[in-house]
UniProtKB/TrEMBL annotation:
<dbReference type="InterPro" id="IPR033851">
    <property type="entry name" value="M3A_MIP"/>
</dbReference>
<dbReference type="GO" id="GO:0004222">
    <property type="term" value="F:metalloendopeptidase activity"/>
</dbReference>
<keyword id="KW-0809">Transit peptide</keyword>
<keyword id="KW-0408">Iron</keyword>
<keyword id="KW-0482">Metalloprotease</keyword>
<keyword id="KW-0106">Calcium</keyword>
<dbReference type="InterPro" id="IPR001567">
    <property type="entry name" value="Pept_M3A_M3B_dom"/>
</dbReference>
<keyword id="KW-0645">Protease</keyword>
<dbReference type="GO" id="GO:0006518">
    <property type="term" value="P:peptide metabolic process"/>
</dbReference>
<keyword id="KW-0378">Hydrolase</keyword>
<keyword id="KW-0460">Magnesium</keyword>
<feature type="domain" description="Peptidase M3A/M3B catalytic">
    <location>
        <begin position="251"/>
        <end position="691"/>
    </location>
</feature>
<keyword id="KW-0007">Acetylation</keyword>
<keyword id="KW-0479">Metal-binding</keyword>
<keyword id="KW-0862">Zinc</keyword>
<dbReference type="InterPro" id="IPR024077">
    <property type="entry name" value="Neurolysin/TOP_dom2"/>
</dbReference>
<dbReference type="InterPro" id="IPR024079">
    <property type="entry name" value="MetalloPept_cat_dom_sf"/>
</dbReference>
């Protein structure tokens, strides 16, 4: 019922613009707003300072969170409010109010859980991280109990059984009621008391196993440093007699460094292997307990793909279409390796990322350092501002935070403001590297939007987390093209959160099916690779010279080099994910399945005594849903070509995109949103053809002069 907070994505529907207009007009102007570009090119404050004593306000303006102990206080308030709302729901007659109470219940829990989900991994203070971790566990336990509360479920069941009342509800309210019931059903509400308790315990166990697996997937492996040739030891962190291997060193030009990193980092860890097997088994037990054939069948309810059978059809069709292309890609990479290392020229898995990059750089001269001076962080943020203004009538303003509101002084707070509707929400930009901060680019919902009981709109709050370098005394933060594209991608998620302005928090913004949630972010990558967009902001930070058109053209053309092999790698990961979450007991060990799947769906050989699956952290948040990246990219490609390729600043298309796809969050079936935008119901062949056609796209069609 209340599982939305712990899903990677769920979404929402709505307009509500007229209903909330009155409350928005009060938020239109703030004297503390300043231009976004200048704010990000200003010298960053560093390092993170932890203020002594209690601050004026708490994290994100939450009064209780001035210190780690405040999580306990916030958690207790949330649970007290939850108890009150549960009692109210159980005595309220069937009607719209039931759905509103359930959403208030969801909001009460999410206000703590969503925030804690971010703080537990990103706050520089270990005490805050530990307090947030405990809050997540406590709220998660409560969610699982509520999802099997028979009396609470009965109040919703009465509403759904009353055809007259249901018929009087608007479509969004009906869908939210059905989604709440779906959460009950996948948690086993229909089971007897003994089995319901088992379902609760399994869910709690799965949460713990997910945390354990996630931590283990990032831990380094160590090897006696004396085993390593002395001339390459400097590539690894050395502590005492051991070298720490903490990644694949995929960009190293030394074949031996990459080979050693691959074999050591991916060497099987018995504890992690046991954790994965227990996680997969527990997920399958839960799925079968509540009436599904497999965990994949449970996970794919309500998605665009709908069933694991359709997912596999999609992946197999795509793999077949890519076959000839990936063979050519591997031949090119092996030819390049032959030039560099003729004695040991066989292409291996540790070679793919490196030699594909070498081929791109050699053919198109796309050395990142040539591009960085044109992509200062401030310029890129101003570019986003220009795009959103032209496309959606939205501007980004830097706002001065209160003392205690931030967890690190280099975080920037942005107000997202519509030209007519006023303040839409806030984006906290945690963009810079720091010790103990995860090296990953993420979007976090901190507070979901909803229409409150007093008629005002609860504005959404999100965090964008990147790992950018700090500015220096001589230059602002400069982004590589890849960093710039990632920034646009994550800002796509943020805009989805800002514009998915639904009546109900349970389906707001990115709280939608996972295979739809990535569409807005991937679509932003198309804008980031269009010269007409890039030309609006890419200026040399010293001279002001615009980025030459031919440099953008070369960069985009280079992305087609080995693109089929890159896509096939994603197919391999997605198929592996489907098999792991398919029929149990698994026919073979997870490592044997990896070997078999790699050889069938990738093409490069499995390396003995490695277990890549133990580093596959997406199995936690994207279990049975890793295919979502490919399916979302297919939809984004179709939307781009139909709506924006002729004019990336087309305001009418931007408004239509907001109306058909962004505004609904998870309050409308995802495939219906896609159908509304494309004016057709896409088939599996349409998804596959969209992805394959991108490999052949003539990028020059994107570079029409904007004069």
């Amino acid at each position: 019922m209340l599982s939305g907070w712990r899903r990677v994505a769920r979404s929402a529907a709505g307009g509500l613009r007229r209903a909330i207009a009155a409350s928005e007009t009060r938020r239109r102007v703030s004297t503390s707003w300043s231009p976004v570009g200048a704010a990000f090119n200003a010298q960053q404050q560093q390092p993170c300072r932890r203020d002594a004593g209690r601050s004026k306000t708490g994290l994100f303006g939450v009064a209780e969170l001035t210190c780690p102990e405040g999580f306990q206080e916030a958690q207790e308030k949330s649970l007290q409010e939850t108890e009150r709302l549960v009692q109210k729901a159980c005595i309220t007659p069937p009607g719209k109010e039931i759905v509103m109470i359930f959403d208030q219940l969801s909001d009460a829990l999410c206000r703590v859980a969503d925030l804690a989900d971010f703080v537990k991994i990103a706050h520089p203070d270990p005490a805050f991280r530990e307090a947030a971790e405990e809050a997540c566990r406590s709220i998660g336990t409560m969610v699982e109990k509520l999802n099997t509360d028979v009396d609470l479920c009965q109040s919703l069941r009465k509403l759904l059984a009353d055809k007259d009342v249901m018929g009087s509800l608007d479509p969004e309210t009906r869908r939210v009621a059905e989604l709440f019931m779906f959460d009950f059903e996948i948690s086993g509400i229909h089971l007897d008391e003994k089995k319901r308790r088992k379902a609760v315990n399994l869910n709690i166990k799965i949460l713990d196993l997910c945390n354990e697996f996630l931590i283990g997937s990032h831990l380094p492996n160590k090897i006696d440093k004396h085993i390593l040739p002395e001339d390459i030891r400097h590539n690894f962190a050395v502590e005492g007699n051991y070298a720490q291997i903490s990644g694949l060193n995929a960009d190293s030009p030394d074949d031996l460094v990459r080979e050693i990193a691959y074999k050591v980092f991916l060497y099987p860890n018995a504890q992690q292997l046991n954790c994965l097997e227990e996680l997969l088994t527990s997920r399958n037990l839960l799925a079968q307990l509540v009436g599904y054939d497999t965990f994949a069948h449970r996970a794919l309810q309500g998605t665009m793909a709908q069933t694991p059978e359709r997912v596999m059809q999609f992946l197999v069709k795509l793999s077949d279409k890519l076959l000839n292309r990936i063979q050519k890609d591997f031949e090119m990479m092996e030819g390049m390796k032959m030039k560099v290392n003729p004695i040991k020229s066989k292409l291996m898995p540790w070679d793919h990322p490196y030699y594909s990059g070498v081929l791109r750089a050699e053919r198109y001269n796309i050395e990142p350092s040539l591009y960085c001076p044109f992509f200062s962080l401030g310029a890129c943020m101003e570019g986003l501002n220009i795009l959103f203004s032209k496309l959606l009538g939205i501007s980004l303003y830097a706002e001065q935070p209160e003392k205690g509101e931030l967890w690190c002084e280099d975080v920037r707070k942005l107000a997202v403001v519509h030209e007519q509707e006023g303040l839409l929400g806030y984006i906290y930009c945690d963009f810079f590297q720091r010790p103990d901060k995860p090296h990953q680019d993420c979007h976090f919902t901190i507070r979901g939007g909803r229409l409150k009981e007093n008629g005002e709109y609860q504005i959404p709050v999100v965090v964008l987390m990147l790992s950018l370098p700090h500015s220096t005394s001589s230059s602002p933060t400069l982004l590589t093209p890849g960093m710039m594209e990632n920034l646009f991608h994550e800002m796509g998620h943020a805009m989805h959160s800002m514009l998915g302005r639904t009546r109900y928090q349970h389906v707001t913004g990115t709280r939608c099916s996972t295979d739809f949630a990535e569409v807005p972010s991937i679509l932003m990558e198309y804008f980031a690779n269009d010269y007409r967009v890039v030309n609006q902001f890419a200026r040399h930070y010293k001279t002001g010279q615009p980025l030459p058109k031919n440099m953008v053209s070369r960069l985009c053309e280079s992305k087609k080099i080995c693109a089929a092999a890159d896509m096939q790698l994603q197919v391999f990961y997605a198929v592996l994910d489907q098999i792991y979450h398919g029929k149990h007991p698994l026919e073979k060990s997870t490592t044997d399945i990896l070997k078999e799947t790699q050889e069938k769906f990738y093409g490069l050989p499995y390396v003995p005594n490695t277990a890549w699956q133990l580093r596959f952290s997406h199995l936690v948040g994207y279990g049975a849903k890793y295919y979502s990246y490919l399916m979302s990219r297919a939809v984004a490609s179709m939307v781009w070509k139909k709506c924006f390729v002729q004019d990336p600043f087309n305001r009418a298309m931007g408004e239509n995109y907001r109306r058909e796809m962004l505004a609904h969050g998870g309050g409308k079936e995802p495939i219906l949103m896609v159908q509304g935008m494309l004016q057709k119901y896409p088939s599996l062949e349409d998804f596959v053809d969209a992805l394959v056609s991108d490999l052949d796209q003539d990028f020059e069609t994107f570079f029409m002069d904007s004069e």
